[in-house]
Amino acid sequence: MTLKQVKALKLGDILHHNNKKEKDGSCQKWKVISGPKAYNYLNLKTTHKNKSAKFYVGLQHEKEQFAYLTELWLHLYHLPNKCTNSNKGSE
Q1: pLDDT tens digits for 11-49?
Q2: Beta partners for 34?
Q3: Structural domains in the chain?
């Protein structure tokens, strides 16, 4: 994903994970639940893992898994229309 694509995300948009798959072999789907917001909004302590992150987007998979998408993890997600998985499953 690019920064331009991230800035265009809206609540409810779906992202596909590049490495994680569903049981049917399709890409794991993550729903945008917040953001994009400036990273300092979280008031998190800066560490070597997040010092270069300038924004975050809240993501949710199913009902119990949550994650933050930052600049460091853009390479792990793609938009559904860019999916190259041969078994895309239902959108």
Answers
A1: 999 999 999 999 998 999 999 998 777 655 455 555 545
A2: 58
A3: 3-82 (2.30.30.140)
